[in-house]
């Protein structure tokens, strides 16, 4: 079931699969971190607000995964900081190691280190955009995550219920936001690159969590 309101949303779910149809990394501008075009030996940034040209660029993560909770599954997009936090290596390190082992860049196989994200449960802050609602695009950008066990246990009661619900008190949501904001990178990752259409409003949390399925 699709979320019907735009804005930030907290979910707790486990990463079940990698979705590598569009790869797992991209070549980015050094200044604005958008994807660059290579013209000859020069990397050109198509961002009209940047238009940077350089003879080198930066490899960053853009990793899509499938996560699952008790209500179903959705696809999440992990950007550079989140993916690096989970995998433990930069996209550049992974790419260089992969090339050293295979000698070629291929869609498959992929670096085995990507498997480090599988079968792990996290609390994700995702952004619901208008395209998710109007076009029913089931891919949500992650802007923050944590593996803090206390928070995960609190919002994953036994029997498991991986979603926060409308019954969650507003004060509890505020506490979560403040707690995550104070965490170091050893416990939580914050996005360093966002989809150009993504707009955040600080730590504001809307009560737009996915409903549980009824029979």
From TrEMBL:
Coiled coil: none annotated. One of its GO terms (molecular function) is zinc ion binding. InterPro entries: Euk_RPA1_DBD_C (IPR047192), NA-bd_OB-fold (IPR012340), Rep_factor-A_C (IPR013955). Gene3D superfamilies: Nucleic acid-binding proteins. SUPFAM superfamilies: Nucleic acid-binding proteins (SSF50249). Keywords: DNA-binding, Metal-binding, Zinc, Zinc-finger. Signal peptide: none annotated. Residues 23-138 form the Replication factor A C-terminal domain. Pfam families: Rep_fac-A_C (PF08646). Belongs to the replication factor A protein 1 family. This is Replication factor A C-terminal domain-containing protein. It comes from Nicotiana attenuata.
């Amino acid at each position: 079931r699709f979320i019907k309101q735009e804005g930030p949303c907290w979910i707790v779910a486990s990463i079940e699969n990698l979705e590598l149809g569009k790869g797992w990394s991209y070549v980015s501008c050094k200044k604005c971190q958008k994807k660059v075009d290579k013209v000859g030996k020069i990397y050109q940034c198509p961002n009209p607000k940047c238009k940077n040209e350089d003879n080198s660029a930066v490899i960053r993560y853009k990793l899509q995964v499938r996560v699952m909770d008790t209500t179903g599954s959705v696809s999440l997009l992990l950007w550079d900081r989140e993916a690096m936090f989970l995998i433990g290596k930069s996209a550049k390190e992974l790419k260089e190691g992969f090339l050293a082992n295979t000698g070629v860049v291929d869609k498959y196989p992929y670096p085995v280190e990507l498997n480090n994200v599988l079968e792990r449960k996290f609390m994700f802050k995702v952004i619901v955009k208008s395209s998710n609602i109007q076009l029913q695009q089931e891919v949500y950008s992650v802007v923050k995550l944590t593996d803090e066990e206390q928070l995960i246990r609190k919002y994953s009661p036994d029997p498991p219920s991986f979603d926060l619900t409308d019954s969650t008190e507003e004060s509890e949501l505020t506490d979560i936001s403040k707690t995550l904001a104070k965490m170091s990178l050893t416990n939580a990752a914050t996005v360093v690159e966002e989809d150009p259409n993504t707009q955040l409003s600080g730590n504001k949390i809307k009560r737009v969590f996915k409903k549980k399925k009824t029979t």
